[in-house]
Amino acid sequence: MNSPVYKKNKSSATQNTCTLCAPLGASVVFKGVENSMMILHGGQGCATYIRRYIIGTCREPVDIASSSFSETEVIFGGEFSLGKAIDNVIAQYHPEVIGIATTCLAETIGDDINGIIKKYNAKKNTGVHLIPISTPSYKGTHIDGFNAAVYALCDFFAQPGTKENNVGIFPGFLSAADLRHIAEIVRSFKLEPIIVPDYSQTLDGGVWKTYHSIAPGGTGIARLKLLGSVRSAISFVTDQVNDAAGLLHARFGVPAQYLPVPIGVKATDSFVDTLKTISGREPDSVLVQDRARLIDSYIDGHKMVYNKKTILYGDAAFVSAMARFSCEIGLCPVCIATGDRSASLKKLVADIEWPSAQKPHIVEDADFTDILELSRTLNPDLVIGNSKGYQLSCELGVPLIRVGFPIADRIGGERILHTGYKGSQELYDRIVNTIIARSQESSDIGYGTY
């Protein structure tokens, strides 16, 4: 029996979108490149909006430049303004790399960003790498912008070379804590990860003794060039258009491995088994013990989570991983939603063994009005997703378990660990404890039936 697919009312406008804008994703990627800056080609408000979302979750300084369109640029084009923006960024920040992402306005008037950059480079030998990315939000989401930026970096920098002990990792849009933990897992197999992007330090750093105009950290140019000679490229990304691992395979013959985001025992096992094959090594005792503890906790908490109805939402790759994890621990997803338009969520979850004969509703190109309208009929016990779903959880009168991006209404969003056995353990404990706390609220004896 196929999962029912919610049919959106095509005549209705999007209300409280379930996604963010495409240049935001590209901006996050360039925070994961060492000594880089981002320029948005368009209005100043786009940069302000994006900075607000990133800073709101990560609580770190984020500078994003803009070519600052006015009426003049809208009519005559933004070539002059973009050149001036590049000059200013180089003078003030001294970056090695500048990502230049388009906005809806620049795309609508048809500015040739590639041509503008070529003309700029021909006039001025700055030595700074200028990388254009097409990111109109009316055509895609923050995930599309993220994947397009990663692809552009690989296309620009990756070079052939002698294979060493490096592994390319394309994690997708995960937390800074996730990136650190994924690197730890890879290094436990005596492999060296080249993570693109790696904002684990730039968006979750420590206190500085002196001010840095560009936060330290990120994957450097030298390591980006090594992507053409890695032993394998592991991707948790579902985008078939901007497929960075596929690019490395086609251009350099790098083996490409496509895996689900490693959340839960089965998905993390797939990641670990892939690393075993690449390295020829067995997992170390830390991984083995983490896995054993996670399975033991599943047993301990099963009676609390079993058959609890859950609403899931987020980007397609992440929410499909959360759906697998939910079924693995005994939750019963009743609605799985994404705002993505370019990835088929229905295909990503097609092979999941659902715990109930009633399959979950699959909602693509969703907004929170769609999700609320459907969820009112499903009587959920939990909502799992980012902080944009807070109003949804209030309307439904059920707890929100915050995962993904953005987490703007809590401290530590960048430190939420979802991945690996360790991250799955933390996530499982949060889910079980939320259910117990909910039970205590309506219990005269404090501890309910648990």
Describe the fold and architecture.
Helices cover 44% and strands 12% of the residues. It is of the alpha/beta class. Among the domains are: 166-279, Nitrogenase molybdenum iron protein domain (Rossmann fold, 3-Layer(aba) Sandwich); 285-441, Rossmann fold (3-Layer(aba) Sandwich). The protein has a 5-stranded parallel beta sheet, sandwiched between helices. Strands 2-1-3-4 form a 4-stranded parallel beta sheet, with helices on both faces. Helix 16 links the parallel strand 12 and strand 13. The longest helix has 22 residues, at 420-441. It is globular, with a radius of gyration of 22 Å.
Which labels suit this protein?
450 residues, alpha/beta, Rossmann fold, five-stranded parallel β-sheet, four-stranded parallel β-sheet, 12% strand
Total beta strands: 13
What does the average pLDDT come to? Answer: 93
Structural class, by secondary structure, is alpha/beta
- C-alpha geometry: globular
CATH architectural group of the domain at 285-441: 3-Layer(aba) Sandwich
The DSSP helix count reads 17
**CATH level 1 class label of the domain at 285-441:** Alpha Beta
The percent range for helix content is 40-55%
